[in-house]
Description:
The complex is a heterodimer of chains A (about 110) and B (about 120).
Chain A: E1 3-6, E2 11-14, E3 19-21, E4 23-26, E5 32-38, E6 44-50, E7 56-59, E8 62-65, E9 75-77, E10 86-93, E11 99-101, E12 105-110
Chain B: E1 5-7, E2 10-13, E3 19-24, E4 31-37, E5 44-50, E6 53-56, E7 65-68, E8 75-79, E9 88-95, E10 106-107, E11 111-115
Parallel strand pairs in B: 2-11
Antiparallel strand pairs in B: 1-3, 3-8, 4-5, 4-9, 5-6, 7-8, 9-10, 9-11
Amino acid sequence: GNSVTQMEGPVTLSEEAFLTINCTYTATGYPSLFWYVQYPGEGLQLLLKATKADDKGSNKGFEATYRKETTSFHLEKGSVQVSDSAVYFCALKGGSYIPTFGRGTSLIVHP
Amino acid sequence: EAGVVQSPRYKIIEKKQPVAFWCNPISGHNTLYWYRQNLGQGPELLIRYENEEAVDDSQLPKDRFSAERLKGVDSTLKIQPAELGDSAVYLCASSTRTGVESYEQYFGPGTRLTVT
Lengths: 111, 116
């Protein structure tokens, strides 16, 4: 079956540091890949997505590239802000309409 | 445009008691999902509705959980009786089947259930 593996958190950074959150997946076929963000007390929000190999999703300064050869979709941001503190979920959607989520990675950004 | 609305936001009950959660999806969204999110985990699908029909409920513990979406709009998820292991955040999401955002899910804020 499909699965998503994320790096364990929390990831703790200072403001303006470079962020990488690793995500690898296992799936049959050609899934779509997603990053969701969950701010404290809120539901999940779609951050970015990529639907085919080598696509780059980007939003709010975050980027992730769909790497089929390494089955990865790592999230990056060049300069994080305190307001980026949240939990980030990597997810994939295969042939069905139901996404499979990773366990989430907590990001804490200090001023 | 209003997002997905859920109530209550928090609920504390004793084990063996019943509990119900309510969800109102985004207007026009045909598909509605209920997820359970345990602490430190990603969401896991419980049930998916297309209009008023439950089309994927294989992960719903049917001995104690039930759900309905009678008019194809808002939905209720019920647990009776609740167990300690049901403590989690219950998330509702909705999506449309058409347009560039087809099947992109919009999540509500969730209901945090604590069973004591």
